[in-house]
Structures are given as C-alpha cells and as structure tokens.
Records
---
Amino acid sequence: MGKYKEFEKIIYRYTHEASELGGQAAVDTIELGHRFHFEDKDALNFLKENAVQLSESSLSRLNGDINKVIAEGIKNGAPIREITKEVKGIFNDFRGYEAERIARTEIARGTNNGALVGYDGMGIKVVEIYSNPGACPLCRARHGDLMSIDQATNTLPLHPNCYCFWLPRADITNPNVDGWKSMGDISGEIVKGLAIDTAFRRVSMAPETMVKLKTKPGHIPSPDEVRLFIETADMGFIDEAGQICLVSPAESGLWKFAPIKETEDLGNISLSGYYIGKRQLTRQLKKARKTYGF
C-alpha cells in the first residue's frame, strides 16, 4: 500500500508542475506580461483529489489484470511459476508503457487545467478545444467545441495520450481590460506602420478557416487595405505601448501575424492560428528582411 501512496504523490507532483506551466502559458498567450501563480486553494484541492482518483483508477486496473491472470491460471491448472511469470509481465508493462501513458495523460490534464485557471484569472470565461492536425477522429470531432471554464475543467485530455489543448475564445473575451483599445479606434503610426511592414499568411490551418478580402479580379490588396480590413472588422486590440494584445476574429481563436515574401498571399487572412505580439513580429521581420531581402 505504501507504493500506491508514493504513486499518488508522484502523479500529484507532476500534475501540479504541469498546471503551473499551463497557467503561465495561458498568460503568455494573451501576452499581458503577468506571472502566473497557482495559489488558489480550491484549485489545489481539486488537483490533489483528482490526482488521487486517477492513481486509484490505474491501480484498480492493474489489480484487475493481475486477478484475471491468477484466476485463469488456476482454472487452467497452470503451474505457479508460469502464473508468476505472467504477473511479472503485467508489472513490467505497467512500469513501461502504462507508466508513460499515465504520465503523458496526466501532465496534459494538469497543463490544461492550469491553463483554465490562468484564463479565468484574466477574465476569460469561454474556451474552445484545439486539436492538432492529424489528430484521431474523436479529437477532430471535438475541435472548436466551446465550453465555459467550469464546464471545461477536467474535460481534456479526451483520451490517453491526447494532445488537445484549450484556447481562449477570443471573440467572446471582454476587450474592456485596462489599457486595451480597439484597433479601429486608433489612427496613428503604430497600427499603420505595423500593417505597412507586414504581410499576413495562413498558418497550418484548414482552407475553411480562411476569409478572402473582397477585391477586383487579379487585384492584390496592399498592406493598407489589409490594415483597413482588420480595423473595420474590429478584429484586434492594441495596448497603450503599441503592442498587440489580442486579435479576435468572429469565428475562431487567435491569429498569427507572420511576414512573407509572396505578396499574392496578401489576399488571404486566416481566422485561426496562433498569435504573436509586436515585439516578436518585429524580430521576425528583421530576420525575414535579412533572409529574403525585402
């Protein structure tokens, strides 16, 4: 029984660490510059209780497998040595693949629950499931599902070794945070310069997440037209320092701004993807200019 308790402690420790990382990742996603601290007593109690339940479930399955082997061995008249060998095999499997599966799954659970705590602390109340390209049918079917923070808790992972994660539902996020302004309300060099220096491209997303700028046949929209599109659609927010804090299109999570050389792609703007702030964008532009000469 002592080993079981030790197993519970290990799961709790690593799940707690993963939750800390997930919470900070949530803060970094919105780029508010805060540090995340997992100090909420209710959250910690939930995490501890959840870890114990998970370990008990795994140990129960292990005991069930062992009991099955012993029962079948006795029924078939197998010698003790053979039964012992099979039982040892179960333990070896548990220490190997099973242990790794548990670790992967529970770290994912801790990371996602930590992210939810982080989002909740920033006033975000709705999140959506993001599944990686090439995910299993179950995960693909749940991609884009919306949930409140309360509903979402402990939903992910959807299955062992699941790689789905939570993104804040940006278009439902309250933009009235101190220091945030709508891009459409800012007329100055900050927004204008950002658009002029930048092209936008789709990032690893399906074609149905794209929106096409309405232009004449054969016309390639200019950076100013792209900027106007974003401002008019009220898709983004910039803080007082001129750094983009959040981009919130109507149908998805966060945008990613990326410099490109092929101007033909300017007409396509993604409604999905990841977001990076102005400082990261500036670094990318610098590197791109050096690499591609534009």
---
Amino acid sequence: VALLAASQPGEEIGAVNGFKLVVERRSEGQYFVNLYGAVNYSLGWHVSGQQVLKAAHQALSLYEFEQRIAGTQRRLAGFKAQAEDLAALVDKPFEKQARLDELRREQIEIDAALDLDKGDMSAVDDSVPAEEAVAA
C-alpha cells in the first residue's frame, strides 16, 4: 500500500479485491482511508499500510457477509413464493379425477373377468402342461 505516497486528498492508491482504495491525508502521520466499490466503506484513520489492509479485509468480510445475507433473503423469498404456489395446488381439485375413476372401474372389471383378484394362477388353464405354457 502506497500510503505515504498519497500526496493529494482523495487520491486513489490502489485496489483491494476490486475495490478502490482512496486515502485522504488529514494530519501528519495519519491517513483517513475509504474503500469504494459496489458499497463504499470508511476505514477510518490509520498510520501504516498494514493497518489499512487489515481494515480493508475486515470491511470486505463484512461486505461478503452482507451479500450472503441478501442472497439468503432472496432465496427465502423464492421459497415462500414456491410454498404459496404449492399450497394453491393442494387446494385445487385434480382436473383428471373423473378419468382416473373411470380407469379404476375398468381395471376392476378386467381383474374380475380374468379372476386376477383371486390370487396365484387361477386364470391359467390347468389342462395345458407347465412345459407347454412356458414354451408358449
């Protein structure tokens, strides 16, 4: 960090993670530092470049945390909207219910005609030997 090289108020002396690092010289030996980007942060007064970098990393950690909170809030809003949509579907009648009932009745009739509801192989002709039934 070119902290001591900052000769003019508002001079950009570098960047940290894509954020502009701007130093204003307020008094001899102390520098007021700002971080400019998607969100602006005032890093306060510092006397060394190491202090500036530490403050910048702390501010960016806060920014990343704020971004995660915002992202989580957006996802939560999406989940709430999805839950409302699903709740509306639960209350909505099944539009193909009549057709489903009809198919179930037909299935019962077919099962009764073939004696499938009596179990095992009651519909199989016992007069045909087992070997011929397998070969067929």
---
Amino acid sequence: QAFCRPSGLGLSMISERAESVGGHAEIHSTPGEGTTVTITVPLLAPNLTNYRKLETHSNLLL
C-alpha cells in the first residue's frame, strides 16, 4: 500500500484561487475538535479578466 506524504500546498492553492476572483479563505482549527475551512468568493467576478482565468480551469471544487 503506497503512502503519499502531503505537500502542504493545498491551503495555499485554495487561498490563491479564492483571491484570484476577489475572495478569501480562512482556516480555524481546534485540537481534538477539528478544522473549519471557509472560502468566500463573490457571485460575480470583479472584472472580466479574472472571470476568464477562472473559466480556463476544468475543475472547480467549492
């Protein structure tokens, strides 16, 4: 059974993606209870350039 060590890039990538469309990401973690990740993005892209960047990605997980 192969084990893949996490690279630690996931949250950075989420934050960068949210910021690229005018949003932001927050993370709150409590030992023994869990972690909450909140991603806030506008319903409409702040400008057409950012909207076109978003359209070029084949997958967007919210």
---
Amino acid sequence: MNENTVFLHLSVVVLAISLLVFAPVALSTDIGSSPAAPSSIPAPPNPEKEDILKSVPSAPDELKAKEVTDNAPAPIDPIISPGQQGALKTSPITNSLAPPVPPDKEAALASVAEPNAVHPNVAQLEKRIAVLEDEVQALLAKQGKPSQVKAPFEVVDSDGRVMLRVSNDAKADMLDMGGGLVLMNYTTEQRGRVIVSSSGGRAVMEADAKSASIVVESAKYTTRMGSGPNGEGNGFFVRDAGGVAANGSATPTKPLAEIAALAGKKVALRLYDDAGNAVVSAGTNPAAAGAGTVKVANTKGEPVAFLGTSENGESGALGVAKNGKNTAALLSEPRMMVLYNDAGEAITTLAKSQEGTGEGGNITIRQPDGEGIFSAGYNADLGGGDACVYRAKKQNVFCLGIGVPGMGTGR
C-alpha cells in the first residue's frame, strides 16, 4: 500500500469521526435555538496529517466512550433529554404542558406543611381575616353609626398641634379650634356662645332665652351691640376695658358712649365721663310731645344746659341751670329771655311788647313769687313808651310815659 492509499483511508476515518462528534452538537443547538433544522452540514476543514493522527483513538471502544461522555448534549428542555449511547428521547408534549387538575380544597389544606411566620398557609390567613372582621365589627358597634363620632376627641396636624377639640361637661358642649375659635352650647341654660380670639382682642357672640349680643373687646375698649349689660336695654354700647384694683381684683367696665333704649326710656345718644356719669344725652322728650332735646350735665351728673322745645313741642327753647335748677331761658315764642331764682320763679323777663302791635320791646321785673312790680316798654297805641311801678300788688300804680305828667302819687 503506497502513501497515497494510506492518506485516502485516513481521510475517510477522520470524516466519519467528525460526523459522529459534531452531529449531536448541531442537533442540540438547533433544538434549543430554532425549530428549523439546518439544510446542510458544512464540510470540515482540511486538517494537516499530523493533527488528524493525534485525534484518532487507538481502538473502537475508546471512540464509543468519547462519543457518549464528551459529545452528548446537556438537557435543553424538560421534555428532551439524552438517552443511552447519546440518542435523544422525548416525552409527550401535550401531557407536560396541560394545566394541573385542581385538587380538593380540604385535601390541599391538609397536605400543607406546618405554617410558619414567613409562609402562613391558607387556613391560617382565613383565620386571621375572620379575627380582623370581628374586631372591625366591634369598633363599629362601639362608635355607633358610621356617620357619628363620639366626643371627646381631637384633630391634630402633622406636627401634633391641636387643630380642633370637641369636649363637654355637665354644663356645656364645646368646640375649640386651636383657641382662635370656640363654640359653646350651655345645655342647662339655653344659652350659646361663639368666641373668636387673637393677640389683639376677641369677639364674643352670645344669645340666651332673653337677650342676644355681639361684644368686641380690645386692650382699651369694649364695644357691644344688641342687649345691654346684664340684659338691660338694647342698642350700641361702648365701654372701657376695665382694670385691676389695688387688691388685684378686676374692676368692672364703665360706660363711655351708647345709642340705646334703656329700661323705661326712649332711644337716646348718651356720652359718659371717666367716672361713668352721663354728661351728654340727646333724644326725644316725652314731656315736649316727643320733640328732640339735648341735655348737658356736669361731672356730678347734674343737668346744666338744655336745648329743646316748648311744652307743646313747637317752639325752640334754650336753658341753663345750676344744681339741677333753671337759672335762665331763651324762648323763641313768645320771644323772651327769662331769669329764674332758686325757687324756679321767673324774676326778670325781656320780651316782645304785649301792647298794641307787639313789635316793640318790654322788660319786666318781678318780686320773688313772680308778681310783676316794674314794667317798661313800647306802647304802640300812643307811639311811645311807658314805665310803671306797682306797689302793694297793684293797689298803687305809678306810671311814667307819653301823656303822663309824672309818677304822681298814684291814682
């Protein structure tokens, strides 16, 4: 056998070995990566003679072992696995991919191993859910209807600050919104109160069975609208803020001004001094047919000036007084000025003449009881003036005037 013949035989052996070694690998790759089989097997490269001789086993048994151990593919899919001698075997695909038949619930629970904190079984979860449902029902029964919340309770923000507090006691129900707004319902007194507060003061709205008011309080003043203090009268009241006595007790507020109808009085404007005495009042005068009147008082509360009308409410009147008694008056009709003594009697009058046309002037001086003792004025009938002195209550009259020679001795 020559050299060419030996080389030809060795080439055939190498080709056979290549087919046995690479065929399983190609099959494995095709199944795992693509359902389509290769259309052809590429021809192996033409190796050198020495490399081929090194790779050829010395016996057929070694070749078979090499095929199975070195070139058998690893399992690619649970339904495909290597068989004996490197062959492939498959299981039915339909049975392996079909969904399992659901077991009986009780049987499945019975087959579950002892539960633990990490993997509780279904029975344990159902038991926990049942316990939670019982607790929820107990809380709902305790709270009453779902739309009701039982007091007392608080509502706080994310920092824990109380935004709203609802509480009650034996006397009142209270809603406190952080101190800035407080609503109180006095259940035993039929009385309600709303308080709005700030660092600069507060406002209080209050109502009960007999009165209602709104009070605005600042550092110096208290303004009240509605029922007066202690429920007396009704109107608009301005008072001071009170103070602190020497012994530390709080002093009551004093009136400063008001437009109100006090008990037994008509609506009037009243201004007060620092001691709480009314020094100015303006309103209607029932004694003058309801006409308007203004009175001014001193610091003792005594009237010292009056601006109003006559008793019939038609003519204007201006008067001044001392110690509560009239001292002088100015009347628009009759046109007159009057001076009064301490007894309240008119002792001097300066008025329009009552004689003739009454367009002249007249002055009359009176004794303490108001009886005239001297009168002088214009006499329209004679075109001049008269002056008369009366004595002993007109028993003796002495006159001086036009056509009269003198006082004489009487007549």
